[in-house]
């Protein structure tokens, strides 16, 4: 601890300190490299030899470590010398309830996913409330461990009042910051659209939800293309409720699922106050892109999935395919970092997230700087994007509260118990899926004309006739 730190009285010069903030806990991350944000370029910038003070759920001050600063009473001081202090990461597309499927779909394709793992399969009857609860909770430990502090959940494990309620409970229990986008869907298990609307209204009034501010309700809907009463009900709901986000799967091309910006614009949903996040946007058109810019709305891209959804394009096609050799890299580490932090926050219209700045929420990730893979870094953004792994993440804070500390998750639950319950649930579910025949994939995909199933060329690492997989 440096001699220039003084505890015992309130930091002078912080006019915004409120009475409640006085009693709140404070934490000082002292003497490290802090990735902050340059307003002029809108890109990350590193402050070396700096400190960050958290008070309550927010960042109170970022200052040079050599500055003489008086700290609030009881401030806890965390030495971050040699470490990198980063804003928490923002994941704008996730389905946390599906954790029990882990490794089941290791060779899967999107077409197989639809018929086997998606929301319209037997999942709607097999997953019980406790499966959704423990799958979601155990599933959310992973992003928290990895420094993801905010998630937009496309919450389609809404199979009954009970699974929806359990889902929301798990999210609140996890301590992650989330836009919990309740999925409305036409299910075959008897949970009607009308009941979903009633269930949603109940959740909006949920006392636990309304007594905290990390988790907020949003809406997910994938059938905007259908001009029917359900779609009208969703449009009305978005217009009448002040929800945190609206999200939809938008693929296009041979996949259908054309919940495009153009479609949403026709329905008058792009120009309202609700942020709209289009996931994948694999076949986005120029007109769609212009609408997104005009209305300040965003897409969420999931690179590994995108490889299933769309032919490889971009770099290879644009340059090498034309026998041109680019002299620069198309994407910098700064750009990648911005996508994973600031851009995700803006997609949710939360400028108070994704950037470490005074007044913003204290969603903070601290990376070790001296592991075998990190040693030798000078640019902290490049170190995080190109060299770090989850094991380097020493501390994670969400809204000023510890979620990981000294390399260990901090949970409100007894993790041993959660793991046991989750494993029981996952074992039951995995057994059912392993015993279920794979979907038939003959003829046309999803009844779409001119979209045929074909066999993919497969990689074989074993010489000779090989083993197939
Ligand atoms: C901090 O306080 C010490 C002791 O009062 C003083 O020597 C030093 O110059 C101060 N540093 C700054 C940056 O004001
Ligand atoms: C992956 O495919 C191989 C070959 O078809 C099969 O033996 C294996 O069980 C599959 N794995 C999973 C998890 O489906
Ligand atoms: C689900 O909750 C809604 C709203 O409270 C209620 O109207 C409906 O009857 C419930 N359905 C079941 C099956 O309990
Ligand atoms: C759609 O709603 C209208 C009016 O709200 C109603 O008259 C009509 O029967 C509904 N259609 C269906 C298919 O539910
Ligand atoms: C909508 O919700 C946000 C976040 O909870 C709040 O800041 C805003 O004032 C609300 N707007 C309206 C019109 O209620
Ligand atoms: C959005 O645009 C539609 C026309 O496309 C218009 O009717 C509606 O009033 C606009 N809404 C807002 C909030 O500006
Ligand atoms: C404040 O500190 C107390 C005691 O150390 C702890 O139990 C509590 O969780 C802390 N609150 C926050 C918001 O971190
Ligand atoms: C957590 O649960 C396990 C298994 O039930 C139990 O053995 C252990 O004592 C519990 N730990 C705490 C800290 O309560
Ligand atoms: C390899 O494949 C060829 C042609 O399909 C077949 O004739 C041969 O028996 C196979 N060899 C082995 C070892 O399976
Ligand atoms: Zn998805």
Automatic annotation (TrEMBL):
Tell me where in this chain the Amidohydrolase-related domain is found. Answer: 84-307, 328-402
The record's keywords, sorted A to Z, are: Hydrolase, Metal-binding, Signal, Zinc
Q: Which cofactor does it need?
A: Zn(2+)
* Gene Ontology terms for molecular function: deaminase activity; metal ion binding
Q: Does the keyword Metal-binding apply?
A: yes
User: Which Pfam families would you find in this protein's record?
Assistant: Amidohydro_1 (PF01979)
Q: What InterPro entries does the record tag this protein with?
A: Amidohydro-rel, Metal-dep_hydrolase_composite, Metal_Hydrolase, Metallo-dep_hydrolases
Record's GO cellular component terms = cytosol
Q: Which residues form the signal peptide?
A: 1-23
Establish whether keyword Transcription regulation is in the entry. no
Full protein name: Amidohydrolase-related domain-containing protein
Q: Which organism's genome codes for this protein?
A: Aureobasidium subglaciale (strain EXF-2481) (Aureobasidium pullulans var. subglaciale)
Taxonomic placement:
Eukaryota, Fungi, Dikarya, Ascomycota, Pezizomycotina
């Amino acid at each position: 601890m440096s001699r220039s730190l003084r505890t015992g009285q309130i930091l002078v010069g912080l006019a915004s300190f409120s009475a409640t903030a006085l009693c709140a806990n404070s934490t000082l991350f002292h003497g490290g490299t802090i990735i902050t944000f340059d307003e002029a370029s809108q890109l990350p910038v590193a402050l070396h030899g700096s400190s960050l003070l958290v008070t309550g759920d927010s960042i109170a001050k970022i200052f040079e470590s050599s500055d003489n600063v008086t700290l609030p009473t009881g401030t806890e001081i965390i030495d971050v010398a040699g470490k990198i202090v980063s804003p928490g990461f923002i994941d704008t597309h996730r389905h946390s309830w599906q954790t029990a499927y882990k490794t089941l779909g290791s060779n899967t394709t999107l077409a197989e996913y639809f018929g086997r793992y998606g929301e319209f399969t037997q999942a709607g009857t097999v997953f019980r409330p406790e499966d959704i609860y423990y799958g979601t909770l155990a599933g959310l430990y992973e992003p928290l461990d990895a420094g993801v502090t905010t998630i937009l959940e496309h919450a389609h494990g809404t199979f009954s009042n009970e699974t929806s309620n359990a889902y929301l409970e798990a999210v609140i229990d996890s301590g992650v910051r989330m836009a919990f986008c309740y999925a409305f869907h036409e299910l075959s298990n008897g949970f009607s659209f009308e009941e979903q609307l009633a269930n949603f209204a109940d959740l909006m009034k949920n006392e636990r939800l309304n007594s905290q501010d990390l988790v907020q309700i949003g809406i997910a809907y994938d059938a905007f293309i259908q001009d029917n009463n359900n779609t009208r009900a969703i449009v009305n709901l978005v217009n009448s409720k002040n929800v945190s986000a609206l999200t939809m799967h938008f693929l296009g091309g041979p996949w259908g699922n054309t919940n495009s910006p153009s479609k949403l614009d026709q329905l008058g949903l792009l120009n309202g106050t609700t942020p709209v996040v289009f996931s994948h946007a694999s076949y986005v058109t120029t007109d769609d892109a212009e609408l997104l810019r005009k209305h300040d709305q965003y897409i969420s891209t999931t690179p590994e999935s995108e490889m299933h959804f769309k032919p490889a394009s971009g770099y290879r096609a644009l340059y090498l395919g034309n026998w041109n050799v680019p002299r620069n890299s198309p994407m910098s580490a700064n750009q990648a970092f911005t996508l994973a932090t600031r851009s995700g926050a803006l997609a949710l219209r939360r400028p108070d997230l994704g950037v470490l700045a005074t007044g913003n929420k204290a969603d903070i990730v601290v990376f070790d700087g001296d592991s075998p893979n990190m040693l030798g870094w000078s640019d902290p953004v490049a170190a995080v994007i190109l060299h770090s792994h989850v094991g380097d993440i020493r501390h994670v804070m969400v809204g000023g509260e510890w979620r990981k500390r000294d390399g260990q998750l901090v949970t409100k639950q007894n993790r041993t118990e959660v793991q046991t319950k989750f494993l029981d649930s996952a074992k039951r579910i995995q057994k059912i899926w392993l015993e279920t025949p794979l979907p038939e994939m003959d003829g046309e995909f999803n009844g779409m004309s001119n979209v045929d199933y074909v066999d993919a060329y497969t990689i074989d690492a074993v010489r000779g006739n090989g083993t197939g997989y």
